From TrEMBL:
GO biological process terms, semicolon-separated: microtubule-based movement
GO annotation, cellular component aspect: dynein complex
Domain of life of the native organism: Eukaryota
Domain Dynein heavy chain region D6 P-loop residue range list: 10-99
Gene3D superfamilies per record: 1.20.1270.280, P-loop containing nucleotide triphosphate hydrolases (3.40.50.300), Region D6 of dynein motor (1.10.8.720)
Gene expressing this chain: Dnah9
Chain ranges of the Dynein heavy chain C-terminal domain: 273-365
GO MF annotation, one: dynein intermediate chain binding
Domain (Dynein heavy chain AAA lid) ranges: 131-267
InterPro entries membership: AAA_lid_11, AAA_lid_11_sf, DHC, Dynein_C, Dynein_heavy_D6_P-loop, P-loop_NTPase
Protein name: DYH9 protein
């Protein structure tokens, strides 16, 4: 708040979670905040489709004459398909969109997992070598289970909400166990991470077995002897500092492939096909609609507009020469004055038509 030049406390912030008849509360909060210069956060606006029209009108009314510090923040889940796009265009066009996109690919996911920690995290345990090695393996494990969802049923039988909280809690458990024991309790760590932290989300027996197998491969005594590969061509790094681990990922992580997840290369055929179809579907949505089915119409909408544009430009008459007209008028009768005024207006109209048609032609090109 201070960086934006605006200081607020809990009385200056109105947080409304929409749904269950909270629309009236939201409207009152908006009116009050507009007068007092408060901030309003409206959460889950995708749950109140019928009310969004009223919200659009209210925001339009409040856009004029409101306090200069008045702000409105809206949150919504992404729509699963174009038919679910229910937020009015007026709201979207007057908003600044802020979105948090999940990382894609092993490279981005591994960096993102490591970003949850710092150099201080790496130095906080007395058994530094063991802690750093297992922590990096946990980061790789987290990246694998999170990104494996993209493979659909070949990844997980059911999609699970694995989060960074699971990773950070697992790191805390690792720290506590290593501080309390001189030996690394591999079995206990695998059980707590695979059966409780991450396993708490898993409801399918085969998925639970898969999670357990990953941990058996990633967390075992060989990891401290430099003999463990997290993926083909990607050995577990040794004792490095925080920036060194990030650099190691950039330098040595193999290109994105199912091998990084222990899967056969054919596993990504379905994923790539689905993504290609989604891209092509989006491109087709952006194309102009085909108007060839209309009587007498030929080609796309753009071609029809171009034909009409050329026709209108041909029909546009040249502007009147006001100097010549004034010279021809012998007496300024009421009729002549009105005629000259209409000629001036016609010139203005013709000029505007030419200008806007030229802009349209540039837009089509």
């Amino acid at each position: 708040g201070k960086k934006l030049g605006y200081t607020f406390n809990h009385r200056n912030l109105h947080n409304v979670s929409l749904g269950q008849g909270q629309e009236v509360v939201a409207e009152r909060a908006l009116d009050l905040a507009a007068k007092e210069g408060h901030w309003v956060i409206l959460q889950n606006i995708h749950l109140v489709a019928k009310w969004l029209g009223r919200l659009e009108k209210q925001l339009e009314q409040l856009s004029e004459g409101s306090h200069r510090d008045f702000r409105v923040f809206l949150s919504a889940e992404p729509a699963p398909c174009p038919e679910s796009h229910i937020i009015p265009q007026g709201i979207l066009q007057n908003s600044i969109k802020v979105t948090s996109e999940a990382p894609t690919g092993m490279h981005a996911n591994l960096h993102k997992a490591l970003d949850n920690f710092s150099q201080d995290t790496l130095e906080m345990c007395s058994q530094e070598k063991e802690f750093r090695s297992i922590l990096f393996a946990l980061c790789y494990f987290h990246a694998v289970v999170a990104e494996r969802r993209k493979f659909g049923a070949q990844g997980w039988n059911r999609p699970y909400p694995f989060s960074t909280g699971d990773l950070t809690i697992s790191a805390n458990v690792l720290y506590n166990y290593l501080q309390a024991s001189s030996k690394v309790p591999y079995d206990d760590l695998r059980y707590l991470v695979g059966e409780i932290m991450y396993g708490g989300h898993i409801t399918d027996d085969w998925d639970r077995r898969l999670c357990k197998t990953y941990l058996e491969e990633f967390i075992k005594p060989e990891m401290l002897e430099g003999e463990l590969c997290l993926a083909p061509g990607f050995p577990l790094p040794g004792n490095m500092d925080y920036n060194g681990y990030h650099q190691y990922i950039d330098d040595f992580l193999p290109p994105e492939s199912p091998h990084l997840y222990g899967l056969h290369p054919n596993a990504e055929i379905g994923f790539l096909t689905q993504r290609s179809e989604r891209i092509l579907h989006t491109v087709l949505e952006l194309q102009p609609r085909d108007c060839s089915t209309a009587p007498g119409a030929v080609g796309t909408q753009e071609e029809m507009v171009q034909a009409l544009l050329e026709e209108m430009l041909e029909k546009l008459t040249d502007e009147f020469s006001m100097a010549e007209l004034v010279a021809k008028v012998e007496g300024r009768t009421p009729y002549a004055v009105v005629a000259l005024q209409e000629c001036e207006r016609m010139n203005a109209l013709t000029a505007e038509m030419r200008r806007s048609l030229a802009e349209l032609e540039l837009g089509l090109k």
